[in-house]
Specification:
The chain is of the alpha/beta class. The protein has helices at 13-17, 38-41, 56-67, 103-121, 152-163, 171-179, 188-201; strands at residues 3-7, 27-31, 47-51, 75-79, 95-98, 126-129, 132-135, 140-143, 146-148, 169-170, 209-212, 216-219. The chain has a 5-stranded parallel beta sheet, with helices on both faces. It is elongated, with a radius of gyration of 20 Å. The protein starts with a strand and ends in an 8-residue tail after the last strand. Residues 124-221 bind DNA. It holds the Pfam family Trans_reg_C.
Length: 227
Amino acid sequence: MLQIVLLSDATNALAGVLPGLELLSHKIEVVPLSSPGALKRVQRPDVVVLDGTSNMVAARNTAQALAARDNPAPVLVALTEGGMAAVAASWCVTDVVLTNAGPAEIEARLRLASAKVAEESEDDTLIRAGNVTIDDGSYTVKIGGTPLNLTYKEFELLKFLAQNVGRVYTRAQLLSEVWGYDYYGGTRTVDVHIRRLRAKLGADHEHLITTVRNVGYSFTAGRDTES
């Protein structure tokens, strides 16, 4: 039996959002999506089922807030057929399910979502920063599950920045930490690798690497202070 939290403002949320869920034998708590402190009431269930049938903006923002937590729970967002077109990797959800899905499909998605997060939580080689997952064991980087093709130094640079979210490093510090103190190349090397990393992160995520004027770079969700 799974511990499930359903985040929804719908009246009679179980029947109105995902009727098939009500036919399963899991323990389900309904928490109003828009109520103050709603997320504080969501401690660490096995799965969060998020109502994406009405307020898509609230659903997306809530999913991103849940994903940013330490040890986040898997999030299964329930959508209508029309809502599927609005979902993107930036939502940071584990899976999606149509509201008219039958209990067998819902059960399978719940089971797979909870198992996937359990496997990831056991792997201490994973570094998570927002929607970016860095696997130090396999030297892979994914954004919302989509892998990036990085060179070894690009990977090491991104990993170092992501391990120190919000901290600003000078180009000289990054050269020392990533390339080593005996590297004879100039700081221009850092700028080139940062530019390549941003290009590979794409327009939706390039802002994660922030330029701090006259100082250096940091990994953050904020916007660049220098164009």
